[in-house]
């Protein structure tokens, strides 16, 4: 079975408690379950990881090369500042989808720029946790389309 890596960045462990008006009442466990169920229906398994530490997230991105078919990542606050995460995504050959629960483009100005978006296969924002389902399906389609093009 093919494997996907789900990476969630800082403060996403606080989902359900942190600013529910922006992020809803679903927990990180709800997100992980949604991604795993969606992927499983398509013949994929998911390894989930969350950290509040930038270097740990970079390590996970690098480790995914050769061990996962693709990555779904919510870099959270590091979206707007992490050149290290951008460089890690650039250095791997598997597709990466960036996801955000809220519409970052309708929020504070500093949230409008993503360091990672230019090196990701796609970005999904503003659909609540359902965006993770969309990211999962989009990533799988990208992986399978690329697999057909390699044949």
UniProtKB/TrEMBL annotation:
Keywords: Amino-acid biosynthesis, Aromatic amino acid biosynthesis, Lyase. GO terms for biological process: amino acid biosynthetic process; aromatic amino acid family biosynthetic process; chorismate biosynthetic process; quinate catabolic process. It comes from the Bacteria. It is an enzyme of class 4 (lyase). It catalyses: 3-dehydroquinate = 3-dehydroshikimate + H2O. The active site is at residues 23, 100. Substrate binds at residues 74, 80, 87, 101-102, 111. The keyword Nucleotide-binding does not apply. PROSITE patterns: DEHYDROQUINASE_II (PS01029). InterPro entries: DHquinase_II (IPR001874), DHquinase_II_CS (IPR018509), DHquinase_II_sf (IPR036441). Pfam families: DHquinase_II. Its EC number is 4.2.1.10. The record marks 18 as: Transition state stabilizer. Pathway: Metabolic intermediate biosynthesis; chorismate biosynthesis; chorismate from D-erythrose 4-phosphate and phosphoenolpyruvate: step 3/7. The keyword Secreted does not apply. GO terms for molecular function: 3-dehydroquinate dehydratase activity. Catalyzes a trans-dehydration via an enolate intermediate. Homododecamer. Belongs to the type-II 3-dehydroquinase family. HAMAP family: AroQ. This is 3-dehydroquinate dehydratase. It comes from Halobacillus mangrovi. The lineage of its organism: Bacteria, Bacillati, Bacillota, Bacilli, Bacillales.
């Amino acid at each position: 079975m093919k494997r996907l890596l789900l990476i969630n960045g800082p403060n996403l462990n606080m989902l359900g408690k942190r600013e529910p008006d922006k992020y809803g009442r679903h927990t990180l466990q709800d997100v992980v379950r949604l991604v795993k169920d969606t992927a499983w229906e398509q013949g994929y398994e998911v390894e989930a990881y969350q950290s509040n530490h930038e270097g740990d997230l970079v390590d996970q991105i690098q480790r995914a090369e050769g061990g996962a078919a693709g990555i779904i990542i919510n870099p959270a606050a590091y979206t707007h500042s992490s050149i290290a995460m951008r460089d890690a995504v650039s250095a791997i050959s598997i597709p990466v989808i960036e996801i955000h629960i809220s519409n970052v483009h309708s929020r504070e100005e500093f949230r409008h720029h993503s360091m990672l978006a230019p090196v990701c296969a796609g970005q999904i924002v503003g659909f609540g946790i359902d965006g993770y389902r969309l990211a999962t399906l989009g990533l799988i389609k990208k992986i399978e389309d690329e697999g057909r093009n390699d044949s």
